[in-house]
Amino acid sequence: MSQIIRRKAASGLVKIGRVIVLALRNAAGDPVRSWLIAICAFVIAGFAVSTAIVVRGGQDSLRLAASRLGADVVVVPRGAATEVDGALLMGTVSRRWMPRSDLARIAAVKGVAVASPQIYLESLSHASCCAVSHMFIVAFDPRTDFTVEPWLRRQLGGTLGLQQAVGGSQVTVPVNHNVMLYGYTMWLRGKLEPTGTNLDQSLFITLPTAYAMARSSSTTAVKPLVIPKDRVSSVMVKVAPGSDPAAVAAAITRSVPGVNAVMRPQMFAAYRTQIAGLLHVMLVVLALLLALALVALVLLLSMAAHERRRELGVLRALGASRGVVVVALLAEALVVACAGGLAGVAVAGFGVSLLHTPIAAHLGIPFVYPSGGALAAQVAAGLGLALVAVGVAAAIPALRASGEEPAVAMRE
User: Fold this and answer.
1) Where are the beta strands (DSSP E) in 131-240?
2) How far apart are CA 144 and CA 382, in angstroms?
């Protein structure tokens, strides 16, 4: 029984091979038509894959950034939620501050387990006293922090001391080397995992180090670093077990004047809306491309089938069924489309990988390149879409040509 199955499988593979060889020969016989089919598949597959990579990369980046926050609720100055989002995602420093005294009020709200302040700073632009221009700096309180401190204890076996820092994954300074900001020298002890946001190019320091750097900058920097007295940029809140984050956030907003409390799932809402709008626009463009490609392919393949009416009539007269004729025409179109589609997904994947930083900056969204599994699924989907489009376009003239009477086709 197994031998029979193997013989049938081998016979089937031989038939498939013959069909592919015949399709390649027919495609080579009309290179102009083949190139046009390949270009259509290239455009469809390439645009579909690049759309999927950019949108999925933006969504993954937002998810990773929200996870990195580690806070159930983020408290920001009233009306500054978008600015804080931009600071955490794109490294654009928020200029809004809230009184440090609000920290005690927030901690006193029922359901708040931990409230930890953060200050957002930025290095000077093209100044000799700063090793990196426009570097985003996050200063946290080591006594109460629950976002960076757990990683420090797990990876470095302790917390950061004075003049010590941890960088994002893309900070170019090597670990265990010094980095200078505002003329103040710090020791880089480690780097965090990537998020695809500007946090990957940021520096994390303790509040004592930030204040020491500000004091030193008055004599060591081109321009002094000014941190408003008794002010913080935001407060990260960890909700007590069993408490509802939504209720805690509402209670903080009611109890503390001049602030907004945002739950973690609601963070980066403006960017989520922007990515959703980008997806909508790109899907509309993809639909238009598909419609135009289908019309062009149907016309192109109809002309090709008409030119080969006599050949197809001979095949039918020799006993070939309608199915054989349809398969022959479909195989020719799909083989060429597969080559064009593979080239399209390769160019799209490599192009986005190479240019993802300027693409993300131009679109104003964060981006992290998808993982291998997600990328493979997107490539398969883009290639499949191109093959389906070409297959549908080829099936219309193929069915029409296969239905003609052999005698009529041979007289043409």
Assistant:
1) 136-140, 164-167, 178-181, 184-191, 203-206, 231-232, 234-239
2) 47
Q: Which residues pair with 165 in a beta bridge?
A: 188
DSSP state of 279: H
Report the chain's C-alpha Rg in angstroms.
31
Give CA torsion, residues 235, 200, 365, 122, to 10 deg. 60
The β-bridge relationship of strands 164-167 and 203-206 is antiparallel
Residue recorded with tokens 């799909």 = 334
Q: Is the pLDDT of residue 86 over 80?
A: no
Sign of CA dihedral 138, 141, 144, 148: positive
Residue 335 in tokens: 């083989």
Q: 239 pairs with which residues across the strands?
A: 112
DSSP 4-19: HHHHHHHHHHHHHHHH
Q: How far apart are CA 40 and CA 265, in angstroms?
A: 40
Region of 163 (left: φ > 0; alpha: ψ -120 to 50; beta: rest) is left
pTM score, two decimals?
A: 0.68
Chain position carrying tokens 């000077």 = 124
pLDDT of residue 217: 93
Element (H, E) at 44: helix 31-69
CA dihedral 280, 275, 259, 91 (to 10 degrees): -150
Coil, strand or helix: which one is 139? strand
Annotated domain spans of the chain: 17-63+272-411, 79-257
Asked if 95 and 83 touch (Cβ cutoff 8 Å), the reply is: yes
Cα–Cα distance for residue pair 161/394, rounded to 1 Å: 68
Average pLDDT over residues 253-260: 90
The pair of three-digit structure tokens given for residue 374, joined into one six-digit string? 């997600």
* Residue 182 φ/ψ region, left for φ over 0, alpha for ψ in the -120 to 50 degree band, beta for the rest: left
- The C-alpha atoms of residue 88 and residue 92 are separated, in whole angstroms, by 8
Is the Cβ–Cβ distance between 206 and 140 less than 8 Å?
Answer: yes
- Structure confidence by residue, pLDDT tens digits, 26-85: 555 567 777 888 888 899 999 999 988 888 888 887 777 776 667 888 898 888 777 777
Q: What angle do CA 394, 400, 401 make, to 5 degrees?
A: 90
- Rounded distance, CA 99 to CA 387, Å? 60
